[in-house]
Write a structure and sequence with these properties.
The structure is a homodimer of 271-residue chains. Chain A has 271 residues and is of the alpha/beta class. Chain A has two domains: 1-43, no CATH class; 54-233, Class I glutamine amidotransferase (GATase) domain (Rossmann fold), CATH 3.40.50. Chain A has seven helices and ten strands. In chain A, the strands form two sheets. Chain A has an eight-stranded mixed beta sheet, with helices on both faces. The longest helix of chain A has 25 residues, at 206-230. The interface between A and B is large, with 107 and 107 residues. β4 (103-109) of chain A pairs antiparallel with β4 of chain B. Chains A, B: It comes from Acidomonas methanolica NBRC 104435. Chains A, B: GO terms for molecular function: transferase activity. Chains A, B: It holds the Pfam family DJ-1_PfpI. Chains A, B: InterPro entries: Class_I_gatase-like, DJ-1/PfpI, INH-QAR, TAT_signal.
Chain lengths: 271, 271
């Protein structure tokens, strides 16, 4: 598949090149912004002024059937953070078919990644692609040398299965939270959980809050808040049904029925 | 590129097939969930019980250099909504290289899409791929027959440029909000704006709130709230800097400097 992948990338880059050439006609900030391929003109990022720190290597370990928003949320935050290089890896490398058939990439092959500063494992219902012993071994290997070992949603179940969360507190999607116990981790229902160098977010959308928290941890509160304003993260949900404690009983009971076992935090992921 | 694209899809589907075969060993809910390729087991979706309505065709019109989270947010909400079919289209069809070089797909070719119930145009800094007259013509054509014409972030500038927002109130990323006036639309700083059949969200992360609002509009408050609980949308940002009115002055001023013109809502997108 790597040849197909390379040719696809090349075709896309060439298309991208056209946009950039067009942008060059604009001059000034627009030109620089197009070159940076970012919301931020001039290649600048939030809080970047004068910084000369070594870039942080931030790796999302994604996989087939994964949930897009679990990593698309924190990716948007981390990608705008100064001196931070976001990378994606997956068990097979290349393009990855996520939940609902969407294709995302490019990704490096997980086994090819030597070392990162932060590893983040996002979640899904179907964790099977990551639950193979040879893949869990790479998750463990990268976790042992990372400054921060992190997850969003049921990604914490993958981390736990790799053996690195023994005795550590961790968040998880509420419906699956207590599955963590089966791997020796300590379930914590909070939306963002930090236990030493382990940081985790709750279900799906919690990835954005987690992203903000790790951004502040990595580059300080000023830079994190600048990114927050850049992505206008001032959430105003039109309803209040986002966790089982606050949701109206009618909503909660309907969802308990959709997700068997979730009333006890014991919905089974596909392992 | 279509041959490459087809071969990539086939390779990925075959890989996907392996996961599903493995999931079959689990039996029961897990099997059904794997077959549905969704967080929800049994092919069920929130509030779906007994419904026989015609599925809603919900189209995201995406494009090269677009911002992933602008549509990944509402996509997660809409994909879990009952009787709702989410589609993606782009100017050239196939895989699309978004901002920061990430590849997303598959997409239909925009000119091939006949008619949809909802069109949603997400945003970016670089709108140039959508600003070509022949592409704007398709945006206008689909908007004229859609039940709802919607956008996230600077996607409203694309809609406005296509001519469909004349005299309509619309949201936009705060930094670009007043650019809407140049196309005869009425800028509204609210996070979610509804003006008749036109609905829009503010910058980037507002796409999730917009997604919740349109979900309720399309399938009712019960179904929308069930999805909210499924994706644990109970936001708890660790800082309060998500809009220029609330952000600490130090944060706001730094971002005004990063985004020239934004203090007046007149940051220039790439057109």
């Amino acid at each position: 598949m790597s040849e197909i992948f390379d040719r696809t990338i090349m075709a896309e880059l060439s298309e991208d090149g056209r946009s950039r050439r067009q942008a060059m006609l604009m001059g000034g900030a627009a030109l620089a912004a197009a070159a940076a391929g970012s919301l931020l003109p001039g290649g600048a990022r939030a809080g970047a002024a004068g910084k000369t720190e070594k870039p942080i290597d931030f790796l999302f370990a994604i996989y087939p059937n994964g949930t897009l928003l679990d990593f698309a949320g924190p990716n948007e935050i981390l990608s705008l953070l100064p001196d931070t290089k976001v990378r994606f890896a997956s068990p097979a490398g290349g393009l990855v078919t996520l939940e609902k058939g969407v294709i995302f990439g490019p990704t490096e092959k997980l086994s090819d990644v030597q070392k990162v500063d932060v590893i983040c494992v996002p979640g899904a219902l179907d964790l099977s692609a990551m639950m193979k012993p040879e893949i869990l071994r790479h998750v463990r290997r990268l976790s042992e040398t990372a400054r921060y070992v992190t997850s969003v949603c049921t990604g914490s179940i993958i981390l736990a299965a790799s053996g690195v969360l023994k005795g550590k507190r961790s968040a998880c999607h509420w419906a699956f939270l207590n599955v963590l116990k089966e791997y020796g981790a300590i379930p914590d229902p909070a939306r963002i959980v930090k236990d030493g160098r382990f940081m985790s977010g709750g279900g799906v959308t919690a990835g954005i809050d987690f992203g903000m928290a790790i951004a502040a941890e990595l580059r300080g509160a000023q830079a994190a808040q600048e990114v927050q304003l850049l992505v206008q993260y001032d959430p105003q949900p039109p309803f209040h049904a986002g966790n089982p404690l606050d949701a109206p009983p009618k909503i909660r009971d309907a969802v308990f029925k959709i997700l068997p076992g979730s009333e006890n935090g014991l919905m089974r992921p596909i392992l």
